[in-house]
Amino acid sequence: MNPKSQSTYQNTSQTTSRATQYYDDSSGKAFIRTFLKILYVLGCLAALYFAYLNINPYVAVVGKLLGQTDVTGFGRFIGKIPLIGGVARALG
Predict the structure, then answer these.
(1) What pLDDT digit, counting tens, does each position of 7-66 carry?
(2) Contact 79, 89 (CB under 8 A)
(3) Model's pTM, two decimal places?
(4) Nearest-5° Cα angle at 46, 41 to 52
(5) Complete DSSP assignment for 16-65
(6) How deeply is 53 buried, as exposed, middle or buried, from its count of CB atoms within 10 A (0-12, 13-18, 19+)?
(7) Residue 81 has what pLDDT?
(8) Torsion angle of alpha carbons 22, 27, 30, 31, nearest 10°?
(9) In angstroms, rounded to a whole number, what is the distance separating the alpha carbons of residues 28 and 13?
């Protein structure tokens, strides 16, 4: 075997071992990776909660405004639209 090709094989092997050390679950990094996944999910849930808190006042205002007006005609209009009417009837 050519010494130069053997050196290339060793360099490739070293690079591969360095790359796989970050994905090796036998090290302590598996705990960190699991912790970061849980933190990510909790962050997404917190974002959804704050989005709900942001939209909630607008829902209350629209509910009060619609409570003051007669919307039976609008409800019938929505009910006549084929796809949207079916979904609206299913939701109540």
Answers:
(1) 555 555 555 555 555 555 566 788 899 999 999 999 999 999 999 999 988 888 888 887
(2) yes
(3) 0.43
(4) 130
(5) HHHHHTTS-TTSTHHHHHHHHHHHHHHHHHHHHHHHHHHHHHHHHHHHHH
(6) exposed
(7) 80
(8) -130
(9) 23
Enter the tokens of residue 69. 């007006």
* Cα angle, residue 8 at apex, residues 22 and 2 outer, rounded to 5°: 150
Question: What is the residue whose two structure tokens read 């299913």?
Answer: 90
The contacts of residue 60 (CB under 8 Å, 6+ apart) are none
**Per the structure block, which two tokens stand in for 81?**
């639209």
Handedness of CA 30, 31, 32, 35 (dihedral sign): positive
